[in-house]
Amino acid sequence: MAPPTVYTSSSAPVSFPESSVSAYLFSRPHDPSKIAYIDGLSGVTLSRAALRSQSLRLACGARRHLGLKRGDTALVLSPNSSTYAVVLLALFAVGAPATLANAAYTPPELAHQYTNAHAHLLFVHPALLSVAHAMFDRIGINKTEAACRIIVMDLEAEERDGLTALGALLDENELEEEKFDGQDADETAVICYSSGTTGLPKGVETTHKNLTAQLAMLGGQEWWNDDDVFLAVLPVFHVYGLVTLLLLPLLLGAPVVLLPRFIPDVFFGVIDKHRVTMALIVPPILLAFIHHPASTKNDLTSLRVLISGAAPLSIELTKAINDRLASLGARAVLTQGFGMTELSPVSHICHPSSAPHKPASIGALLPNLHVRLVVSADALTDADPGEPGEMWIRGPTVMKGYVRNPKATEETISKDGWLKTGDIAVRDEDGFFWIVDRKKELIKYKGFQVSPAELEDVLLSHPDVVDAAVIGIDDHAQSTELPRAYVVSKPGSTLAISDSFEKDVQTFVAANVAGHKRLRGGVAAIEAIPRSASGKILRRELRELAKTEAVKA
Fold first, then answer.
1. Residues 98-117, buried b or exposed e (16+ Cβ, 10 A)?
2. Is the dihedral of CA 422, 427, 431, 433 positive or negative?
3. How many Å apart are CA 240 and CA 191, to the nearest integer?
4. How far apart are CA 263 and CA 355, in angstroms?
5. Structural domains of the chain, with CATH
6. Torsion of CA 88, 91, 97, 100, to 10 degrees
7. Is 388 exposed, middle or buried (0-12, 13-18, 19+ CB in 10 A)?
8. 3 state DSSP class of 432
9. Distance from C-alpha of 36 to C-alpha of 53, rounded to nearest angstrom
10. What is the pLDDT of residues 201-217, one digit of tens each?
11. Global confidence as pTM
12. What angle (nearest 5°) sits at the alpha carbon of residue 117, between those of residues 339 and 112?
């Protein structure tokens, strides 16, 4: 057997301390009075000094009044805000792993994450209290006990709706934060949820070492400027937003304008008002640069770099966006990268100077990482130069594993530490990579992960459905995938022949999942779900079927 072909980064390795991620974030000598976060809606700012003090005071109060200690997991449920950063850094200081939930989750989805992560406390935005109460009710926690576990994310109040608010926990003293030096740096800092390459969403244990390594690798790139201003419209409960928009700018000493969601008029207005230079986004947001009138009503010339991630960026869209930016007078460079929650999350990025010459490339490998392009996992055969293979990655940012799921961890990480991404890539002679296919079942809707298995479980709970399969179909107009379901009706059921069949099934699913998981690709009745001899759904056959249906339509 030939030895594996291992590719390394052309960039020199970077050093990073094995320490608490929060200690590393404040290790550079930035001016404490410099703004860390700006609320894009209200304009309220939070300085680095106030952020540091509030988080350590909150950590002290959480330990004193809530009994929160090192190793206790807490769930955070909130849209983007500076308060989110205060809570997260407080949890880092206490040494309590933070599991970050999608702010659009329904009570059943939230219940899965809360119980799977073994969380106890729930830090929740005031607008999401009804979801929190419904979640606790669903898992059998009575109102009295739930009230002891819920902390309302309001720093200005001590109580909200009869519940403890953050203001009541701001101690006079600052906590001496927990140390995570040496081997302790391998303790879990954050648990975000990912479908991985297959199956239901799983909790990804990201360690302090994972995060400090990732931040050092990204922070060492020479194309950040001292006067950069970041825009955070991507959710920070997703590891992409968390690392690149909440944590990395803090390390760099750059202010971040935070928006709770993407509203085109607000988005473009904020770029103009705050002279934003760096925007990390996903392909569907890029479409607004072309189609939404707000892009022409605001001055976007401050933009220097647009980084697209979380979903592939086509050559066609890249060209269209570049042409549009030029017509608006913005000299911004559009580039993209690659990552996974399991990689903390970024492994590749295309340097802005290379992006025009390598369209649609995810870029070169970040320092400290190694890559293989594997053709056959069983035979461990690697692809020949220029040929495609599944991308395997090894390095200090590979996750600790999936929470209480050793089987899934073993299937994803080889015994010698290679993380199997499930993405098929090619590499050119200059060391740049392109994603050309996907081995994994995961669907990406506007950058959000959608697990086919999770939607299939919801469909199978419908009283008239006996079998179901979900695939992703391309929507080129929106530059995204749409979840599409194929269902087999219960014998004797009139569901499939009903005039409202598709709408009824879509409505049923929508009532049980977050908005990004809805069956926007439609629903079709089928006599039998194609399966292999072992019972595995043959999704490729369904994708081919979907193409013929699109042609007929």
1. bbbbbbbbbbebbbbbbebb
2. negative
3. 13
4. 27
5. 7-11+194-438 (3.40.50.12780), 47-179 (3.40.50.980), 443-552 (3.30.300.30)
6. -30
7. middle
8. coil
9. 13
10. 899 999 999 999 999 99
11. 0.85
12. 95
